[in-house]
Amino acid sequence: MVGLFLSITFAITLGSVEIRPTTVWKIALSKIPMFTQWIEVDWSKGEQTIIWDIRFPRVLMGAIVGAGLSVVGVAIQSLVRNSLADPYVLGVSSGASVGATSVIIFGAFSMYGQYALSFGAFTGSLVSIILIFTLSRIGGQNSTVRLLMAGIAISAILSAITSLLVFSAPNEHGIGTVLFWLSGSLAGGKWEYLTIPTLIVVICLIVLMAQYRSLNAMLMGEESAGTLGVNTVQFRKLLLVITALLTGVIVSIAGSIGFVGLMMPHIVRVMVGSDHRRVLPVSALFGAIFLIWVDVVARLAFAPEELPIGILTALCGGPFFIWLMLRSSYSFGGSGR
Questions:
Q1: What confidence tens digit (pLDDT) does each residue in 302-335 have?
Q2: Nearest Cα to 94, choosing from 64, 67, 126, 136?
Q3: SS3 for 287?
Q4: pTM above 0.70?
Q5: Which residues form a coiled coil (predicted)?
Q6: CA dist 22 to 29, 39, 60, Å?
Q7: Which is deepest, 58, 112, 129, 134, by most CB within 10 Å?
Q8: Three-state DSSP class for 227?
């Protein structure tokens, strides 16, 4: 937690305008009624705008998105019982992108008002994960190769559909918005966008933490989990909904950001073992810290231009994925090949 606190603090101070760390938390505390009278105002109005209205919500969004992607990575790896699984790799993010793109360009799901983007992304991710999981099990038990092949196939189809939607866009502004958004970005971070994603990430994390014994049992296989009292059919449905919900909400606010859900759970398992009672919270923490600093690099590397954050996570995650595939054994909790 200290690392997360320091990451948030220094990420906010970095930028074209340098700001002292003490100023960051003075401004934050001044927004809390009980502390207002104890805080001496020694900052400018410009500094307050930069910190409170621009950088603070963006950094917090990075923490929420990073934590959410890591948690969904743990969930989906448990669902398919393989450490190569990830919403981006398996094409779940592509499904969310189709739903979200249809909302941005054509106003689909407009009946849901401000929640249209989240609902569209959730619907797309849920449909895609069901298709991928069903396709991978046709003709036999699930396996790493079949799962990856199904994910690649569905991802390619959904990516093509997204491209078709962009090509059919009625205006250029919508095209530009979607193309930048598809590469992942936290540039749209605002306070009003944080409430729902934060609640969903926290609730899903709590639900999964409460089910850590079932998650541990699933690593040994469905039959073994069943003998331990786990209702595998219902539990898989729960994991499907959580995976789709987290992926949909995250994609709706930050676009398609890949490989975070692949890297963080795997790194954490090496450090703390496979017990989900530790894996879940530590993965969320590491994911939050990781994405905060990736976003800092995205903001500063080519300043004043901003690099889409998905490019940087792919540069990190691509080699990591190849390394996992080249290892002599890359599954966990049993054979996942």
A1: 878 888 898 899 898 888 878 877 775 545 544 4
A2: 126
A3: helix
A4: yes
A5: none
A6: 11, 11, 18
A7: 129
A8: helix
Which residues make Cβ contacts (< 8 Å) with residue 30, sequence separation at least 6? 36, 39, 41
pLDDT at 66: 95
**Residue 183: CB atoms within 10 Å:** 17
Structure tokens at 88: 């981006």
Separation of alpha carbons 212 and 231, rounded Å: 14
Measured CA to CA, the distance from residue 133 to residue 85 in angstroms comes to 11
> Which DSSP symbol is given to 87?
T
Q: Is the pLDDT of residue 67 over 90?
A: yes
For residue 167 the two structure tokens come to 């090509």
Rounded-to-integer distance, Cα 319 and Cα 329, Å:
17
Query: Measuring CA to CA, how many Å separate 258 from each of 57, 262, 265?
Result: 21, 8, 14
Distance of alpha carbon 292 from alpha carbon 113, whole angstroms: 29
Q: How is residue 147 written in tokens? A: 């799962």
Helix (H/G/I), strand (E/B), else coil: 185: coil
Contact between residue 124 and residue 157 where contact means Cβ atoms under 8 Å apart: no
Supply angle C-alpha 146, 124, 166, rounded to 5: 105
Instruction: Tell me the two tokens of residue 183.
Output: 């590469």
From 88, 95, 91, select the one nearest 73 (Cα to Cα).
88
Write the CA distances from 73 to 26, 195, 244, integer angstroms.
36, 22, 11
Q: Is 175 exposed, middle or buried (0-12, 13-18, 19+ CB in 10 A)?
A: middle
Report how far residue 332's alpha carbon sits from residue 268's, in angstroms, rounded to the nearest whole number.
Answer: 13
- CB contact at 8 A, 248 and 125: yes
What would the two tokens of residue 137 be?
């099990």
Query: How confident is the model over 80-104, as a mean pLDDT?
Result: 82
Place of tokens 């950094």: 59
